[in-house]
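Please check this:
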Amino acid sequence: MMPEEKRFYGYTAAMASGILLAIHVGLGSLFSILIPNYMREMGWTLTQITWESTLCTAATAICSVFGMRAVIKLGTRAMFFFGSVAAGAGTILLGSAHNLITLYLGGIVFGLGLAFACHVCCATFVSLWFIEKRKTITGIVLGFSQFGGAVCLIAGGWLFELMPWRVATNAIGGAAIALGILINLALIRTPDKMNQKPLGWERQGASKAAAAPGLAQFGLSFNEAFKTGAFWLLVAGICLAGMPMTGVKVFGPTFWQSFGMPQQVSANYAGLLTVFCTVAMMISGFIADKLGLKAYITYIFLAFAAGSAMYLYWPLHQSAAYTSLSLVVISLASPTGAISSTITPEVFGPKDFTSINGKIMGAFYFGVAIVAVLTGALRDMTGSFDVVWIFLGVAAIAAMICCLIALRIAPVKKLLNK
């Protein structure tokens, strides 16, 4: 009798990585509903508090360079393990912060987890399992990660009603560490550990494995890409792309509460936004495959521009229907964090995907750091969120222009034409 063919493990592995990413992203979103507590209990200004986000993303941007080397040398499983511990420990520090130093330290620790074990690590892990369906699976996995934000925000708002917010925050951080370690030990496996091949390997020759970063040899090296105008356009575009959704998620609950909305209600709306973002992220890879990257990038950033305009006029229309509609519109821009992983192989080819994408994602995190402190300072100086929403809308349009130009002048086209 012929031995029974082993069931393909890639889908289970992808699901497990999505759950881990959901934990990391979810804990990061929890900070947004903690801001009013720090302001009320500790008397800190919004600018002082948002330095936590700045230091978090600065640590992520700086360490993402080493993160790619760590992924290559130590493997994605080790990085996921580290990320689970760092995300939970950073959250516990935030819950324990009675001074700004502890608050900032929590942000830095959390940032290390993002650098080594978040989007780039997950995209690399998925690429090990999938040659075919890579964009679709990556979109689903990264989209599912947004579900973690909904869970943490809604659970946080609920727990804050039942117990002191510091106790609730520390409990969530501890539970996240335990769950993350369990999933890492039980489910995270690479193809070589399972004695399997990536999906679609048998239909792709070694010279045509264009969808498998790290396996294919076609395209530009990092040194070659670094010298092109397209690389710097993407650095600028992805840096700007890191600003819009970050600004909305960080300042949304504080914005609503400044007009009298109860904390739990604002947490529920923030959770609802992440649910919408989950759906938008999960279909983003399908849209990119079916409509092409130009349409994909255009709709993402135009949707945010429209959503930021709706936020601008929200004080005049504070109904549940208008609030929910604004969340739906702005959620369509949630795949901004996945644009780098999607556009990089199209502009430079898959030859040096991990290195090139790692540097560009560093720019994304740098943009997140800039927007946190910049918009916080703008809000403190003007006393209004209007300038925040205008700034974020302009950043989205500028990001779209940079990405579309980079796609148009993609250096990999020259190699294809030879």
User: Anything to note?
Assistant: Residues 205-216 have pLDDT under 50 and may be disordered. The radius of gyration is 21 Å. Residues 10-417 form a domain with the Growth Hormone; Chain: A; fold (CATH 1.20.1250.20). The chain is about 80% helix and 0% strand.
